[in-house]
């Protein structure tokens, strides 16, 4: 290693010792969600897929595309319903199986996109997922006009999706505005794009090159591989902060190092150092700025005349509990749903769902 490479840990003075009853590499919640369901639930490589042929679906227009897929609006010629055709680029077979298995496991999940069919062309080269279509508003426009009530409403829906998904042993790993479809007329949200989703098993080391930069939690940026569901709660916190402070992205780094720097400049280096120490993370960098000392900035510093009605005291208390370095300090999705910030929408939301999940929120707010 270069002599210039320095370890943040060596610069530590006195670090407050936080004692947790659980091993650090284990999720506080739903740690056994896969184990209790058994191998047929999570062993996606062994999963046999019955493919339909493509004639039934017609492409109407292109919606977008990325590294792994091209996405089209389509029509199901059998029932004339609109649908989305996601054509997967020839990617590793196991990745296709994983996405389909996750979507099948999540059939009927609240606020998650529904998988309608899976299609393979006769050459067996192209695989497509047929999902429901959402009349989606462009988020970069929509977020600038969301009211306080809208934000609470959509946060409740997103967290409802995440609590369900996590309770079923799955981490989404790419929560970001582009993957959260909002039909603002119907006030309905759907979480899409399960291509990076993974089954959680305590203690397993996962890839850290997942997610999208502006929504990546600290654990990915420092290369900590034993992460869990709480990864999605950081991303949700970033989305929430962008909404209430009316910014396009709250932490807007130009690369992964700069992303971490943007986070350090808001949350402060004291808490970062304590986090590295608690998890025994040997974080090294030769970037001078990342070795600097930054105080934690109070959330009130981000209030402007424009965002003041959204950045209420309960909204600030909420963002503060989502954007934490230590994943175990972050609210879980169920705890977030139980937070006072969501108390008004919680009653409506649970009533709308027949209150079948009223038992999930046992977190106490002092
Ligand atoms: P993706 O590659 O899955 O992120 O999708 C690319 C784009 O297609 C998204 O950013 C959306 O604009 C659009 N899209 C994807 N899924 C849907 C859907 N179910 N309903 C409407 N639009 C979608």
Automatic annotation (TrEMBL):
Residue positions binding ATP: 86
UniProt entry keywords in alphabetical sequence: ATP-binding, Kinase, Nucleotide-binding, Nucleus, Serine/threonine-protein kinase, Transferase
Annotated SMART domains: S_TKc (SM00220)
Protein kinase domain ranges (all copies): 57-342
Subunit-structure text: Heterotetramer.
CDD domains (alphabetical): STKc_CK2_alpha (cd14132)
Gene Ontology molecular functions: ATP binding; protein serine kinase activity; protein serine/threonine kinase activity
Subcellular location: Nucleus
Function, in words: Catalytic subunit of a constitutively active serine/threonine-protein kinase complex that phosphorylates a large number of substrates containing acidic residues C-terminal to the phosphorylated serine or threonine.
One record GO biological process: regulation of cell cycle
Any one annotated GO CC term: protein kinase CK2 complex
Domain of life: Eukaryota
Enzyme type, top EC level: transferase
Protein name per the record: Casein kinase II subunit alpha
Transmembrane segments: none
Chemical reaction(s) catalysed: L-seryl-[protein] + ATP = O-phospho-L-seryl-[protein] + ADP + H(+); L-threonyl-[protein] + ATP = O-phospho-L-threonyl-[protein] + ADP + H(+)
Family: Belongs to the protein kinase superfamily. Ser/Thr protein kinase family. CK2 subfamily.
EC annotation from Swiss-Prot or TrEMBL: 2.7.11.1
Pfam assignment, any one: Pkinase
